[in-house]
Design goal:
Elements lengths: L1 E6 L1 H10 L1 E3 L20 H17 E7 L5 H7 L6 E6 L5 E3 L1 E3 L13 H14 E3 L7 E7 L4 E3 L2 E5 L5 E7 L19 E7 L6 E5 L9
Parallel strand pairs: 6-7, 11-12
Antiparallel strand pairs: 1-4, 2-10, 3-8, 4-11, 5-8, 9-10, 12-13
Length: 218
Amino acid sequence: MRVYQFLESKWAICNLLHSRLKVSEIDKLNDPFEFSAFRMPSKDLEDAQRSEKQKISEFFKLLCFSEIYSDPAMWAYYGDNHKGICLGFEVSINSLIPVNYKLERLHFPHLEQLSFEDWHKQIVIPFVSTKSESWKHEKEFRMLITTNDCTHENDKFYYPFDINLKLEEVILGHRFIAEAGFEAPKLPPYAKLFRADLSTSNFAIERVEINQWPTSDA
């Protein structure tokens, strides 16, 4: 499945140079309701949810994607007001978790004597995949990464481009400008380079394939 990640140009270029993506740490996500999918009618359930969140945070990290590149709001929020870059990856559908957007929180399951499989199904997946409906425009998919599969550098975690995360597209934002001294990263031969453009028929972002990166004097 093709999925996309929007980035400021300096971080996208850094990722391309190092063939990796920075993974998100659960306690640093931008939604304060992240991994708080369940209702908390009592102090005991609040403590249980906090404990499960901490447990999951130690074992897992996240890669977050959108299934679309054409939403101008996404370019504005995450693509540095259309000056950034959107990276497109081919990822197995079996590795992706679709986000479910809800009006209300879920009921907390019983935790007694859960097997690892049941814990993953009843706790981890709802934690990872449940967000408020106010985020539904993002059409988000997530990839759950074990901490052991990440590299750790300067207090950040990274996951390499590989067969499970295959770079296929690089889309330069509509307002992308190559700064002075810019050196274009070399892309894999199968990856295509595009420039974002404004649709002439609707309020969407389109892409136009280009043969080379713009230069700093372009």
